[in-house]
Write a structure and sequence with these properties.
The structure is a single chain. The protein is an alpha+beta fold. The chain has two domains: about 190 residues, no CATH class; about 170 residues, no CATH class. About 55% of the residues lie in helices and about 15% in strands. The chain is built from 14 helices and ten strands. It has a six-stranded mixed β-barrel with strand order 2-3-8-5-7-6. Helix 2 runs antiparallel to helix 13 and helix 9 packs parallel to helix 13.
Length: about 400
């Protein structure tokens, strides 16, 4: 029975090879497209979230008040010193880490090489929040902070620009003509964006105490903090506004006094965006599969017409209409699933042949998600059911007398 089924299926498919190839190509291409689209969509999402995961930081810029408060007229400039940032952390237990941040562009020189890049004055806790992890040497420590040492930590790109293949650790560079010893170099990291100055790979980091003592800057450009629980970021931000308002003198309701950037808002927005993006890719791939399914339905209708006499003979000798219906339905479904399997195989082959080392930093590593595979199979089954049922019902409703006359 099964052998006879596949024999008839092969005969029908190879009777018109061009038509069969065109029909199968629609299903193959549809499956290939949906699998690849969702694989790349998932990898781009993972890569984007990877650059943000684990930070959950809140960045605060002091601005100008727009409300009068306790004798202070509106228009007061908010100024925050590093000492105030330390007090904020001590007064709000929900803050896990906090760092003041000076950000200025300076001339940086080593031997005959000179660049004009961003210099950041920060504290030890900055590393955990911004993932400035050493590839060589070490990060800044508390002794550097306490004794205002002239030490610095380099981003990987500026280290390469200044030193080339030479190891920078232990060497001396000059920032605005003043000597600093390099204690470490950052690993190469994925950074989707930056909130001020240049990306970290181009920056020089030094203790804020040293920055303040040498360059005379009393007030910070901004400060960053991270709550113990990222879900509490909104609550903690309100506490920061309230605490700063009491310390400096502005209303906690004055939203313009502080500009706040919450990483958690961006992360949630990214999740929603990629959810919508992957749904769109799935719909796009489904429509492509539907085109292939329409082709299968068309070819099976032609097959029914060509086999009208055969169907009539089977009905005349006692074959049940249900048997005829199942036969043609199974043939259509087999074509759909065979084309889907070819599409899966081609998509997997392409993903295995991709030069991952060249694209990983941009789109991540695209992989076939098992869930994508299950969903695609279900879509194929649904389209195969619809595509197969139409010609199968046509075949089952054949009048044997008229079929034999034809």
């Amino acid at each position: 029975m099964i052998l006879s089924f596949f024999k008839n299926l092969g005969r029908d498919l190879f009777r018109q090879p061009l038509r069969t190839v065109l029909t199968l190509s629609g299903v193959v291409w549809g499956t290939f497209a949906i699998v690849l689209l969702l694989a790349f969509g998932g990898s781009v999402q993972k890569q984007s979230m990877k650059s943000m995961r684990g930070r959950s930081i809140v960045i605060v810029w002091p601005r100008t008040t727009t409300m009068a408060y306790k004798g202070f007229i509106k228009g007061k400039a908010i100024r925050i010193s590093p000492e105030i940032v330390d007090k904020i952390k001590s007064k709000i237990p929900a803050i896990r880490q906090a760092s003041p941040e000076y950000v200025e562009s300076k001339k940086i020189r080593y031997a005959g090489e000179e660049v004009f890049n961003t210099v950041r004055g920060i504290n030890v806790e900055y590393r955990a929040m911004r993932k400035t992890i050493p590839a060589r040497g070490r990060w800044l420590n508390e002794s550097d902070m306490q004794y205002k040492r002239r030490v610095c930590f380099l981003g990987n790109t500026i280290a390469e620009n200044l030193f080339g293949d030479e190891d920078p650790v232990g060497k001396q560079i000059f920032i605005q003509g003043m000597p600093f010893m390099v204690v470490g170099v950052m690993i190469e990291k994925i950074q989707a964006g930056n909130y001020s100055g240049q990306p970290d790979e181009h920056c020089v980091f030094m203790p804020w105490t040293t920055f303040q003592a040498i360059f005379g800057s009393k007030y910070v450009r901004n400060f960053i903090f991270r709550p113990w629980d990222s879900r509490d970021s909104k609550i903690v931000t309100k506490q920061v506004r309230r605490t700063l308002g009491d310390m400096i003198g502005f209303s906690p309701q004055d939203k313009d006094a502080l500009f706040v950037w919450d990483d958690n808002d961006i992360e949630n927005s990214m999740k929603l965006f990629f959810l919508a993006f992957n749904i769109f890719l799935g719909i796009l791939g489904t429509f492509t599969l539907m085109v292939g399914g329409t082709g299968v339905a068309s070819i099976m209708l032609v097959v029914v017409e060509e086999r009208t006499r055969e169907i009539g003979i089977k009905l005349a000798v006692g074959a049940k209409r249900r048997t005829i219906l199942l036969q043609f339905f199974a043939e259509a479904l087999t074509v759909i699933l065979f084309g889907g399997a070819l599409g899966f195989f081609n998509a997997a082959l392409v993903l295995n042949l991709l030069p991952l080392e060249m694209i990983e930093d941009y789109v991540g590593i695209p992989q076939i998600n098992p869930l994508v595979g299950i969903v695609t199979v279900l879509i194929l089954l649904a389209i195969g059911t619809i595509s197969g049922m139409i010609p199968a019902r046509r075949a089952a409703s054949t009048n044997p007398v008229e079929a034999l006359r034809g």
